Amino acid sequence: MQFFVRILGVALGILAAALVFLAFSHQHVQSRSQARHFHNKNVQVRSNRAALAVSSNGFLLYGHPFDIWSGSLHYFRIPAEYWLDRLEMAKHMGLNTISTYVPWNFHEVGPGSFDFETHAHDLARFLNLAHEVGLRVLIRPSPYICAEWDFGGLPARLMANPDLELRSSNDAFLDEVERYYDALMPILRPLQASNGGPIIAFYVENEYGSYGADRDYLQALVAMMRDRGIVEQMFTCDNAQGLSRGALPGALQTINFQDNVERHLDQLAHFQPDQPLMVSEYWTGWFDHDGEEHHTFDSEDLVEGLQKILDRGASFNLYVFHGGTSFGWNAGANSPYAPDITSYDYDAPLSEHGQVTPKYEDIQMVLMSYGAEHPRRPHYHSNSNPYQVMASHLTYMEELPHTNGQGYVLYSTNLDLQASERTLVINGIRDRVIVYCNGQRIALLPLKYTHAATRLLDLLVENAGRINYGEAIGEHKGLDEAFWLDEEEQAHMAVIPWDRMGHLTDDTPGAPRLYRAFIPRPPDLGTGVPDTYIDTRDWGRGAMFLNGFNLGRFSRAGPQWQLYLPGPFFTRETNELVILETDPQAEVPTTVKFLDHPLW
Question: Which of residues 1 and 335 earns the better pLDDT score?
């Protein structure tokens, strides 16, 4: 980000920062207790048999009856410093298992280059922490995960290959998956329950029955895992409409829903008689799109449904137990196009910043009444050289090696405007465009120019998030069609990544702005530096970065009016907050305000 500040030439001074931090009790600390090592006398080490077996009477773990009481939490949405805390809170609520996805595009830092070791990418550390706390793990490592995550976890670069068909038995796609699994499965293999680890089941894909019917693809995924030493039980998961197409011999079918519990469980039993009933996603709330109201799900309705699940003897996974935050450019989108917000609070039992909610306590009471234990409450590396691509054809964001297909891209060209009035039409924009002419921000499309001159036209296109669910997945980002000056196609342009837009500077009216504030490290209150929220109500649209880390997008459209800033992110004595503002307001804010709670 320091290079970004320099290259844009934006120097608007240092904003005063008025800090208000979350005054949490001892509940909100890096670790509410020392991790308790988990030992099971029935563990069978180095077995070639799955530790979890299925029977008409339910699950058997190491030969003993076992009910899966699970909750989803995503390590990639949680500061690594808080992993242990969130896991302990899952155990404290009465769960015995957690579920997590593994997003391919989070771990692939370059084509064929993977990071499974550094900080928040250290998947093995997260899984071992779950084991130490006494939690089993349902792992969801498929190439596609949905999860309201950008492109459903798929790397954007896949879209640059016209011969590749997503989520299919297409050779080009499976070749990519093989390379990914070559990096991932050696990490997961020793952590299987059959090897004494926490992982008791692997998901083949995610709600595939709602997308396709290519059984060869599903079988190929299973074969890839088996060939790499995975022996545990395989699950599929689908909503009710996808059960018939999502089934796979040898894999246990599971179901996803929020209401009509008896009907959904009856449907699952119909498709799969004499097998354990498993709800892989019992939705505890819902996600939010930009500009919508914040979604909630009544706790009374949730626990009533949970009791019905338990009364049927079914196993379950709460989706989600704790949502966290889609930091960076990682929030996804849905079709018809609607981008997700940065917060993944989800109205979950444990809030975005890790606080117990009434929903948490209600679920805990239900699980205790059914025999749950009640343990003691635990207290892209950037090249600094200027970079652009000269293109004589349409270039999508995912074709630029520098951007990872995220953020913004600038299309720049010179137009010879000799007539008194010319009409410029631009179609196929994904997802949002700001138009500049000779450095001046102008009206949106279609545009009419009334000056006769050669003018520099800049199109700043924002990728607001790739669709992560449904048949519309796989859209390109940037300009999807050529633009036209009257009836003449304009195809020659410079394509510039978002952090190299050197000619849009502080002197450009209406251009994106960068603001900086320097914030002293808050005092350690004895339990670590407290968390806080940045109040975004005075800002238009953009993203915020602390010490170069992308905290996520903000937008005046709501419903999110704040960005979560975890205390461990204050890594320096003096911390640099950079605010990228693409829609500058008439009155420039002079302070950065912080909150002790979210504004829903």
Answer: 335
